[in-house]
Amino acid sequence: MFDKLRPQLISILERGNEAEVKLQEICNLLKENVPYYDWVGFYFKNGDKRELKLGPYAGQPTDHTIIPFGKGICGQVAESDQNFVVPDVEAQDNYIACSLTVKSEIVVPLFLNGKNIGQIDIDSNTADPFTEADERFLEFVNEEVSKIL
Ligand code: SME
C-alpha cells in the first residue's frame, strides 16, 4: 500500500500548484487510500509563538486549530522532535480529544533544515493499527513535503 502511495505523493508535489494545495491533496490521498487513516492533517509552528496552527487536513473539522507546545500529543511532539505513536488514546493523560470515535493516533515531526517546524497528525478509529511501516512512510512524506516549503 505505501509503496503505491509514494510515487503518487511525488507526483502531487511535482505539479505546479501552491504548497497549500499540494498539502491538501496529500491529506486527501492518505485519508482515501489508507483504510485506518480517518483524519489526516498538518500542523505548523505559528510564527514565533510556542504553538501549533492547523494547516490543510482531511476529515472532520476540529476545534483544535491552535495547540500550545506541550499540550496533547501534537504539542508534545513539537517539543520532543520524536515520532509519537499512540495505540490507545484513552491510556494517555496528555491528550486532546478531537472526536469520540478516535482510538489511536500517530504524530511525526516535519523538519526543515534540521528544525522541527510542524508535523503530520493521523487519527484512527481503529485500535492499535500503526506499525513501523507507518512511521517510515510518514517520515518519507514529511521529508518530501519539506522540499517544497
Ligand atoms: N489529538 C491531538 C489533537 C489534534 S486532533 O487529533 C486533530 C493531540 O492530542 O494533540
What is the fold-level CATH name, i.e. the topology? Beta-Lactamase
Question: What share of residues are in beta strands?
Answer: 25-35%
Shape: globular
Low-confidence stretches: none
State the strand order across the main sheet.
3-2-1-6-5-4
User: Residue share in helices?
Assistant: 25-40%
Could you characterize what this model shows?
With 149 residues, the protein is an alpha+beta fold. The protein has a single domain (2-146), classed as GAF domain (Beta-Lactamase). It is 35% helix and 27% strand. It is built from four helices and six strands, in the order ααβββαβββα. The protein has helices at 2-14, 19-33, 72-80, 132-146; strands spanning 39-45, 51-58, 66-68, 84-86, 104-112, 115-124. A six-stranded antiparallel beta sheet has the order 3-2-1-6-5-4, with helices on both faces. Helix 1 runs antiparallel to helix 2 (19-33) and helix 1 packs parallel to helix 4. The longest helix has 15 residues, at 19-33. It is globular, with a radius of gyration of 14 Å. The two termini are 26 Å apart. The mean pLDDT is 97. Methionine sulfoxide (SME) is lined by residues 39, 41, 62, 64, 67, 72-75, 95-96, 98, 105, 121, 123.
